[in-house]
Amino acid sequence: MSTVRLDDGAVLDAARACVLDVGVRRTTLADVARRAGVSRMSLYRRWSGIDELVGDVLTRELHTLTGDALDGDRAALVARVVEVCEALRRHGLVRKIVDVDPELLLPYVLRRRGRSTEAIVDRLTVAILAAQAGGTVRQGDAGLLARFVLLTAQSYVLSAGAVAADAPAAGLPGELATLLDGYLRP
């Protein structure tokens, strides 16, 4: 009996497409399997359910947007965080989840951090340590600073639409940059 190796990339692409079509709650592993051209049982061997699969899709998307490293001084760090926040705020998958299935975000906003969040905090911590060594970011616990940068960024990505209704959207990135720069400034 031969075993066909599951192409995670194709499955993640199929899951992404399904979520963009109908949202997370209305996407099933059967839908993803059909779209990916694999058996549903193959998916269950790899993922425990749709939430875990969508978590992997989001991890891949966030990794693609954030890249591997945040290098440079405070100005470069702030600029990159703002750039990623703007990309996430307009990202189709993130928008779909915020618009259709916002309740899925509550555990990550209120109680816990996921794998993607941990990876981002780790990268921010490394970048903050480097900027502290260069004297462009204030001294303090780099991990704590990274968590507060993430908290600010997360709030911006998920809530900027509420502010944009009353303020020019074009000014929002500048305000985020001002806030982050002031927080990190020595």
From TrEMBL:
Coiled coil in keyword set: no
Positions of the HTH tetR-type domain: 5-65
Native source species: Pseudonocardia dioxanivorans (strain ATCC 55486 / DSM 44775 / JCM 13855 / CB1190)
DNA-binding region of this protein: 28-47
Superkingdom per UniProt: Bacteria
InterPro entries, per database record: Homeodomain-like_sf (IPR009057), HTH-type_TetR-like_transc_reg (IPR050109), HTH_TetR (IPR001647)
GO terms for MF: DNA-binding transcription factor activity; transcription cis-regulatory region binding
UniProt-recorded name of the protein: Regulatory protein TetR
PROSITE patterns referenced in this protein's UniProt entry, alphabetically: HTH_TETR_2 (PS50977)
Keyword Chaperone: no
UniProt KW keywords: DNA-binding
Pfam families: TetR_N
